[in-house]
Amino acid sequence: MRRKDREITDLGEIEKIIKKARYLHLGMVDGDMPYVVPLHYGYIMENGRLTLYMHGAKEGRKLDVIRANPKVFVEIDTDEQPISGGDNPCKYGASYASVMGSGRATVVEDTAEKMGALAILMQTQTGRAFAIDEKMAASVAVIRVNVDEFTAKSRPAQPEAAAAKEKERHTALADMDNRELFSVAAGDHGPIAQEYLRGIVRDYRAKHGKDADLHTMVQTMLSEE
């Protein structure tokens, strides 16, 4: 690895990246041509050994390529954010965290392993434990990748850039009327708006008492728009 200053060797930190990212790019060799597909995955990290599970249709190019040549390469990345270089285009970049590795892929045929693999995939993707039965397992193909070796690296976001972005978000929230604010709190930026709303709640309770009815507060705020 050329940029040793960005290398991650701690297995706990590497696993955090794998747990957070949710999807990977699976690189294969189809004859004399590269072939790459994005896939959701589940993983097991045991004693420094990484095993990845993916699922998909029961037939298709991906399975044909793996059966012909099981050698694969995987790439996982997360936390991508642009880094401004101002007026200098050569200073632009991005923050990120990534894991890359090579290994061998297998199309899983054993029903019990397929059921376990799909449960692992769902746990990774949703954080929930699902019971997978034989009928569910029979409806899809499952691919296992035993990763022989892997590396990881990251470039954290610049603190000042992150702080500026957070300030910009809060400024945007301050410009919203109450209906827009409550709408945002239920949407993609919920955590940010919810924190902003918590500040409003604290101010309201400081003025009206800690036991002030929040339902009444919300209705009052919305009726004022």
Element layout with pairings:
Elements: E1 7-8, H1 11-21, E2 23-30, E3 33-40, E4 42-46, E5 49-56, H2 61-68, E6 71-83, E7 93-108, H3 111-126, H4 134-138, E8 141-155, H5 159-174, H6 178-185, H7 190-208, H8 214-223
Antiparallel strand pairs: 1-8, 2-3, 2-6, 4-5, 5-8, 6-7, 7-8
Helix pairs in contact: 6-7
Describe the protein's architecture and organization.
The chain is of the alpha+beta class and 225 residues long. The chain has two domains: 4-155, Pnp Oxidase, Chain A; 159-223, no CATH class. Helix content is 41%, strand content 33%. It is built from eight helices and eight strands; from the N terminus they run βαββββαββααβαααα. Strands 1, 2, 3, 4, 5, 6, 7 and 8 form an eight-stranded antiparallel beta sheet that branches. Strand 4 (42-46) and strand 5 form a beta hairpin. The longest helix is centred in the last third of the chain and has 19 residues, at 190-208. The termini are far apart. The mean pLDDT is 83.
User: Mind describing the biggest β-sheet?
Assistant: 8 strands, antiparallel
Radius of gyration: 23 Å
Q: What is the CATH superfamily label of the largest domain? A: Electron Transport, Fmn-binding Protein, Chain A
Into how many domains do the coordinates divide? Answer: 2
Q: How many strands in all?
A: 8
Helix-strand makeup class: alpha+beta
Q: Percentage of helical residues?
A: 40-55%
